[in-house]
UniProtKB/TrEMBL annotation:
InterPro entries per UniProt: AB_hydrolase_fold, ABHD18
A Pfam entry, by short name: ABHD18
Protein name: AB hydrolase-1 domain-containing protein
Length: 355
């Protein structure tokens, strides 16, 4: 009875948080400027073209990625560890770069690593941002305790977030649906480039990619497209952005009324939601190739997640035989704060499963 009540409490915490954030309009909704016009059409075409040509072919043809040469500065250092910040121009495809706001053209990362261990004796995991994760601190707190396991943490600041946030955007509330697609495409291309840099330039022995919520969707895509085995850790993640915006609590934070008016011909709410589902189905990770070492793929889901239904994560596991799903008791919000130890153990285990 106590466990059952606790699960209900976790589930309702997600809904209370969602009500405060979305239903009471304490913050602006997602997509308050509509679909994105010509940018959305372009991004849909680019994505459908990749899918029709075969994502496996894309991962081969577009490797190696464009080189980067980050400019580094030391944020702090101690006897045991060192934190550096690097900046570099986004290496995205020129058509994708044109869809990014000017503020997002320069990528920022922070790299936390032990000082006394050479890179070739360490692993490094790239951490990608979830919705609303501005800056670096949350993910550095997740990765920091892994230093004692000789696992470094590289945190990428997402386009549209932190210092890369457009001037007119409030918080994490993307202004257009097209922004969500270009954020994902740019994040994937930047992460692929960073993994190549960590391998060939920095010389780390093992690599991984990790992300919470939306960042987990991107991590799964990056891991799928990487030409060599990676540890892939999608945490509290759906198999598609359509699940989050059309089924979970975030549907209450979407400007459906604006999207209805933004179409050339008037549409009903149901029609607009179907249109949204069709656009976001382009982010369905079950369409992506199985990663090179599926045993090093570990999903972590929450038993009472109000944002991400549990069956969504199971769809990904079915699409990627050999991967593992682990569960924590909690909701989306509570698990984020309470289960860091479980997330870190998944990272350790994923890295350990790399040959």
């Amino acid at each position: 009875m106590v466990v059952s009540n606790l699960r209900v409490a976790h589930y309702w915490l997600d809904h209370v948080y969602g009500a405060l954030m979305y239903r009471l309009r304490l913050s602006p909704p997602f997509f308050s400027n509509g679909w994105g016009g010509a940018r959305l059409v372009l991004l849909e075409q680019l994505t459908r073209q990749l899918i029709s040509q075969g994502l496996a072919n894309f991962s081969v043809k577009c490797w190696p990625p464009p080189p980067i040469d980050p400019v580094w500065r030391t944020v702090w250092e101690s006897k045991a560890a060192k934190l550096q910040e690097g900046i570099f121009p986004t290496p995205c495809d020129p058509l994708v770069r044109e869809c990014l706001p000017p503020e997002s053209h320069i990528a920022r990362v922070r790299l936390l690593m032990p000082r006394s261990v050479p890179a070739h004796k360490m692993a490094c995991v790239v951490h990608l941002a979830g919705t609303g994760d501005h800056g670096f601190e949350r993910r550095l707190r997740l990765g920091g305790p892994l230093l004692k396991d000789n696992i470094a943490t590289l945190v990428l600041e997402s386009p549209f977030y932190g210092n890369r946030r457009p001037r007119l955007q409030r918080g994490a509330k993307l202004l257009c649906v097209s922004d969500l697609l270009v954020l994902g495409r740019a994040t994937i291309e930047e992460a692929r480039t960073l993994l190549y840099w960590l391998d060939k330039q920095a010389g780390f022995s093992k690599l991984g990619v990790c992300g919470l919520s939306m960042g987990g969707v991107h991590a799964a895509m990056v891991g799928s497209l990487h030409p060599t085995p990676l540890a892939v850790l999608p945490l509290l993640s759906p198999h598609s952005a359509a699940v989050a915006f059309c089924e979970g609590i975030m549907k209450y934070g979407t400007a459906w009324d604006v999207l209805m008016r933004d179409e050339a011909c008037s549409m009903t709410l149901d029609q607009v939601r179907e249109r949204m589902r069709a656009v976001l189905s382009l982010t369905d990770v079950t369409r992506f190739p199985i990663p090179k070492n599926p045993r090093a793929v570990i999903f972590v889901g929450a038993t009472n997640d109000g944002y991400i239904p549990g069956n969504s994560m199971l769809e990904l596991q079915r699409a990627w035989p050999g991967s593992e799903v682990r569960w924590v008791t909690g909701g989306h919000v509570s698990s984020f704060f309470l289960h860091g130890k479980v997330f870190r153990q998944a990272i350790r285990d994923g890295v350990a499963r790399l040959s």
